[in-house]
Amino acid sequence: MRPPFAITRMKYQSARRNAGVTLIELIVVITITGIIAVVLGSFIVQPILGFQATARRAELVDAAEMAMRQTARDIRRALPNSVRVDPSGRVIELLSTLDGARYRVSPGTVVHPHPPSSKEYLLQIPGTDNDGFNIVGFFQNITTFPFVSASQTPPARLAIYNQGNVAADAYADGDESTAAPSSYVITRNTVTRFTINNDAGGDEHHVTPDPGQSFKFRRDSPYRRVFIVSTPITYICDPAAGTITRYWNYPIRTTQPTNPAAAPLNGGQNALLTRPVAACVFKYTAGTNTRAGIVTLDITVRDNASGEQVRLLHQVHVDNSP
Description:
The protein is of the alpha+beta class. It is built from 3 helices and 13 strands, in the order H-H-E-E-E-E-E-H-E-E-E-E-E-E-E-E.
């Protein structure tokens, strides 16, 4: 007969063996847990990767659209027939306008009389106009008077009937590094400055050349349109650097500038528009006086980390009716 304490010890050891986990059981549990984790992970990881890809594409699209919106805004404000693209298709230039209106070539009688004998109300074309002219109504974007062209940054210019050809080219007439023409389609800051004010009756704006100066516009606009030009603007796409940069507030030149490190672009202001750009092509179809021109903007942006690319194509109508 076994002693009582021997029986108790055997029961205690048996209970300890029954309460433990064997190595095989542990391996089975780990295996099952791993399988469950892989299954659950496949449901979780894919949506996360999809969200990251969507966010990445959205950033690429936004980068390209931002460049296109700014470029399109400037193109719509361009002086008629002033948009030009260099042969590489990576540089586009235009003359930006502040405002536009129709000038008076005949007397009016609404609200405040403009008698035919008072030539100060009428623009003389061709020939020399020393006393200025009225526009029909008001400029829309000019709210502070007097508006002094020389005090603007950059100085403002007047343009009438730019056709963008040899006979009437705002770039050639406005290039102050060359001899001044006897008549022009755009004024030069060094030759003809002007002031805009309300006329005596307050119903129209009056444009007056500075004392001792005069207007000598070459041709009459069929639509009697006059524009206030602020600055040339250039967009340069550099796929090697992955950038599109905007340049402004530089002198007008007859030949289109394409080198940002040289004059006149290096004498103005510039701002990075977007990056990273993989490729871009600018195309311009001039159209006619009765059909709008079209600028095509083709921009491809790339995410360098993933190599993913997004290409956007946008067309902007250009009003070339001078």
